[in-house]
UniProtKB/TrEMBL annotation:
Lineage of the species this protein comes from: Eukaryota, Fungi, Dikarya, Basidiomycota, Agaricomycotina
GO MF assignments: saccharopine dehydrogenase (NAD+, L-lysine-forming) activity
Coiled coil: none
EC number: 1.5.1.7
Name of the top EC class for this enzyme: oxidoreductase
Catalytic activity as recorded in UniProt: L-saccharopine + NAD(+) + H2O = L-lysine + 2-oxoglutarate + NADH + H(+)
Identification of the protein by name: Saccharopine dehydrogenase [NAD(+), L-lysine-forming]
Subunit-structure text: Monomer.
Naturally occurring in which organism (per UniProt): Kwoniella newhampshirensis
Amino acid sequence: MAATAPEQAGTSAETQPRQPIWLRCEKKPHEHRSALTPTTAKVLLDNNFEVFVERDPQRIFDDAEFEAVGCKLVPNGEWPSAPVEVPIIGLKELPESTDPLPHTHIQFAHCYKQQAGWNDVLRRFAHGQGTLYDLEFLEDPATKRRVAAFGFFAGFAGAAAGALAFAKQQEDGGKGVLKDLKPYKNEDAMIAQVQEALESVKGGKENVKVLIIGALGRCGSGAVDLFRKVGLQEENITKWDMAETAKGGPFPEILDVDIFVNCIYLSQPIPKFITSDFIAAAGDARRLSVVVDVSCDTTNPHNPIPIYNINTTFPEPTVEVDTKGVGKRLTVISIDHTPTLLPREASEQFSKDLLPSLLQIPQRSTAPVWTNAEKLFRQKMEEARVYDEKNGISA
C-alpha cells in the first residue's frame, strides 16, 4: 500500500505539517547513484520533512541505511501511487511511456535541449498537469551556477574509462575491446586499476598523451585530476577551454593525442571539434585512439563530435568509429552516467550540494531557485506545444 501524505496539523512551528518527499528507485540499467543519501535524508528529517524511500537493490546505499535514519521504506516503483502533492525525486529520466505525469518531479529529464523524444516527455507533464524541476537547470540566483552537478565525478570516471579503453585497445594486435565496466568500491580502487592498465601499454603511462576540452569546468577538472593521480606526465595533459577553442574547429591537435576527453557544456551551436572526414584525411598520421564524450550530447543536433550516434553502456563501453578504412582503430565512449562508476562518493557530493535547495521546497512558490526552474519548465512546455502544433502531432 502506498504511503499517505502527512495529516494537516496546527500552524505553530512545533505542529506544522511535515514536508513529504519521495525518493524513487532508478530504472536506468547499471545506475547505482541516488539523489538522496542516508546522510542528507537525515538532515531533511531533522528539518520537518517526511522522507519516503523506495526499496531498491540497485542503489549503492542499502535500504537499511535509510531506514536506520528514520526514512519510511515503500515498495519499489510505487511512486505513481503516491499522493499527487508529494514531490518525487530521482536522478535519471523516467522510462519511456505515454502515461500522464501529475506529480512534481525533481530529476534530470534530458528534454530541454531538444534531445530525441524531448516533446514526448514534456507532453506527459502537459497531460498530467504535473511539474518538472530539472536538476540540470536548478541555478543559484546569485551566481547563475548550477546548485548541484555530477560534473567532477563525470570527468574523473570518464577519464578513467577512456584510459582503460586505450590500454585494452593495445592488446591482441590492436583489436582489444573494453567490456563490462563495474562500479568501484572507492576512488583508490579505480586509480589502482587504471595505473595497472596503463603500465601495460607500450612506453608505459609516461608516454600517454591526452587532451581535455572544457578543462576549467567541474567536469574537465575531474578528468585532469584522474590523469594526474594515475601518473601521467603533466606536459602530456593538454588542457583546453574557451580560449583555445575560440578559433573554431576542427582541431588537428585532437588527432595528436592518444585520448581526447570532451567536457564542454553545450549551450549553443559551435563549430565541430572533429568529423569523420577530418579523421580520414589524417590517415596513418593520426595518433588518436579513444574519444571520451563525457558531455554526451549524442542526439543533440549541434553535437560537436558527430562521429558516433549512440550512447554506450557499462557492458559495452565503446563504439567503433568509421574511419573510412584509413588509419588505426578509433572508438568512442559515450556513457551518459559515468559518475555511477563511483556511486557512493558521487551521490554524497551531489546530494550535499543539492541539500540547501531541497530544504527550501516548502517555500518553493517563492524561493528563486525553484521559481526560476518552474518558469523555465513553463517556457519549454510552450516550445513543445508549438512544436507539436507545427508538426501536426496530436496533443
